Amino acid sequence: MAKPNKKLPSKSVYVHCHKCKTKLFKYKKGGKGALLKCFKERITEDFTAIPCQCPGCQTIFARDTLVNGTPAYKIIGNKAFCK
């Protein structure tokens, strides 16, 4: 299985909670598709106190998993979006 590229993409996006619009983290996103998973090594700024939980409304927005052997957050459907 392929792992994510070691070189980070140049495009940075802010990931927001869909319910309360609070910033969750700043992420180096590759490609133009929807946000399905966030690799932990690509997160540059983290605004959450508890992993996978929104600091504003306390909603669980992701699951902590391994994707192809790399730690990642898998976004639960429409609980987070990127700008």
Q: Your description of this structure?
A:
By secondary structure, the chain is mostly beta strands. It has a domain at 50-83. Helices cover 0% and strands 41% of the residues. The chain has strands at residues 12-17, 23-28, 37-39, 43-46, 62-67, 70-75, 80-82. Strands 4-2-1-7 form a four-stranded antiparallel sheet, with no helix packed on it. It is globular. The chain starts with 11 loop residues before the first strand and ends with a strand. 19% of the residues are buried. The mean pLDDT is 92.
Please bin the fraction of helical residues.
under 10%
Radius of gyration: 12 Å
Low-confidence segments, ≥5 residues, pLDDT <50?
A: none
Helix-strand string: EEEEEEE
The structure class reads: mainly beta
Number of strands: 7
Termini separation comes to 29 Å
**Can you give the mean pLDDT?**
92
The biggest beta sheet reads: 4 strands, antiparallel
Order of adjacent strands in the largest pleated sheet: 4-2-1-7
Secondary structure topology:
Elements lengths: L11 E6 L5 E6 L8 E3 L3 E4 L15 E6 L2 E6 L4 E3 L1
Antiparallel strand pairs: 1-2, 1-7, 2-4, 3-6, 5-6
